[in-house]
Specification:
By secondary structure, the chain is α+β, with helices and mostly antiparallel strands. It folds into 2 domains: 3-235, P-loop containing nucleotide triphosphate hydrolases (Rossmann fold, 3-Layer(aba) Sandwich), CATH 3.40.50; 244-361, OB fold (Dihydrolipoamide Acetyltransferase, E2P) (Beta Barrel), CATH 2.40.50.140. It contains 8 helices and 20 strands. The chain has helices spanning 50-58, 100-110, 115-128, 144-156, 174-191, 202-208, 226-231, 236-241; strands at residues 9-18, 27-35, 39-43, 65-70, 73-74, 85-88, 162-166, 194-199, 211-216, 219-224, 246-252, 257-260, 263-266, 279-285, 291-292, 301-313, 317-324, 327-334, 347-353, 358-361. The strands form 4 sheets. It has a 6-stranded mixed β-sheet with strand order 6-7-8-3-9-10, with helices on both faces. Strands 13-12-11-14-20 form a 5-stranded antiparallel β-sheet. A 5-stranded antiparallel β-sheet has the order 15-19-16-17-18, with no helix packed on it. Strand 1 and strand 2 form a beta hairpin. The chain binds adenosine-5'-diphosphate (ADP) and magnesium ion (MG). The site of adenosine-5'-diphosphate has 10 residues, from helix 1.
């Protein structure tokens, strides 16, 4: 789906900043735009500033600097309830003494809507998350997944123009998490609601979102489509955080070859760096892009001989560690009926594309 087809930025964060005290900012000069109807993931490790960002956008905490703009209107100084945003908190924050229907109705009562309209909208919101039959229950009488749906219904019932979700699936077990991914995405697309989805789970971000903003230590590290972020990470941090990767340190010579341990590899150098002087580099190679037993050769391929050091069977995939030229490489292959797994100690040939050998200048430590 082309982002441009949605027509213009709906939500803009302009150099948004948060300082809780002395020391580095929790969020530093964060700028990004979310398009109308877009689902944008804020992805990053714990403590990188995702919740802080979401809370500033939602008006739950004041920003120390910068602006939040919705459809061209500066809302930075507005209280949360006047921002027209539905918020789902990580711990759901349901009212324990109220039943499901009352929890969902709460935001409408705060807005003093007529009783009949509140009742109708609560029923619509509960239908959307398929919870009509449980509306008389208290939160403690619900499973984690059901509580999550109540929180979602409570956010949607005010018919907000923007939906903010803070790790909404992180308390659910793996199978339910996958189901809820699809369900949230379906609802979000059906309503065409502009959404920020906070997560530390890269698979969730890749699977659900139109674009991903990768955050690191309060900064925006990279913004792009899931394909961009996965295939063209701009920093070793992004390559490492999104998807599995081998990280191999090496030294680039004048001909552009990288010596890493006993290996000499061709690398896909970032545009503009090809003429840079030789020096230390970090290579990133995805385990599943390395062909185990690969005989491919030629200018587009790297290849080497190695010895299998460990094989782990995880059902659909075989994960192997292969030692080659003093370097340990993780290699993944899909399991296939009739194809034997390699054995510990077995000699194997590895091959992978030069285009899958991403090179970055070594970061100063
Ligand atoms: N109320 C607070 N007071 C002081 N520091 C805070 C507060 N909330 C968060 N922080 C700090 O701000 C940083 C970002 O936190 P947070 O936004 O919760 O990260 P994330 O949601 O990505 O895990 C962390 O270093 C955290 O310790
Ligand atoms: Mg958080």
């Amino acid at each position: 789906m082309a982002v441009s087809a949605r027509g213009g930025a709906h939500l803009t964060l302009e150099r948004l900043e948060k300082r809780y005290g002395a020391g580095p900012a929790a969020v530093a000069s964060l700028s990004l735009e979310v398009e109308q109807g877009e689902l944008l993931a804020l992805l990053g490790p714990s403590g990188c500033g995702k919740t802080t960002t979401l809370r500033m956008v939602g008006g739950l905490i004041p920003a120390s600097g910068g602006r939040v703009v919705v459809a061209g209107r500066d809302v930075t100084a507005l209280p949360s309830w006047r921002r027209d945003m539905g918020i789902v908190f990580q711990n759901y924050a349901l009212f324990p003494h109220m039943d499901v229907a009352a929890n969902v109705a709460f935001g409408l009562q705060m807005r003093h809507l007529p009783k009949a309209e509140i009742a109708a909208r609560v029923q619509r919101a509960l239908a959307m998350v398929r919870l009509e039959h449980l509306q008389a229950r208290r939160p403690r009488e619900l499973s984690g997944g059901q509580q999550q749906r109540v929180a979602l219904a409570r956010a949607l019932v005010i018919e907000p123009s923007i939906l903010l979700l803070d790790e909404p699936l992180s308390n659910l077990d793996a199978k339910l998490r996958e189901e809820m991914r699809t369900e949230i995405r379906d609802i979000q697309q059906r309503l065409g609601i502009t959404t920020i989805f906070v997560t530390h789970d890269q698979v969730e971000a890749l699977a659900m979102c139109d674009r991903i903003a990768v955050m690191r230590a309060g900064h925006l590290e990279q913004l792009g489509t899931p394909h961009d972020i996965y295939e063209h990470p701009r920093t070793p941090f992004v390559a490492d955080f999104v998807g599995r990767t081998n990280r191999v340190e090496g030294v680039r010579d004048g001909e552009g070859l990288v010596a890493a341990g006993g290996l000499r590899l061709r690398a896909n150098l970032p545009e503009g760096s090809k003429s840079e002087p030789a020096g230390k580099v970090v290579l990133m190679i995805r385990p599943h892009r390395i062909v185990l037993g690969g005989t491919e050769a030629g200018a587009d391929w790297n290849s080497c001989d190695g010895v299998v050091r460990r094989v782990t069977y995880v059902g659909d995939v075989l994960q192997c560690e292969v030692e080659a030229g003093g370097v340990r490489l993780a290699v993944e292959r899909h399991t296939q009926p009739g194809v034997a797994a390699p054995l510990d100690g077995e000699a194997v040939r590895l091959a992978w594309r030069v285009s899958d050998t991403l090179a970055f200048p070594a970061e100063p430590v």
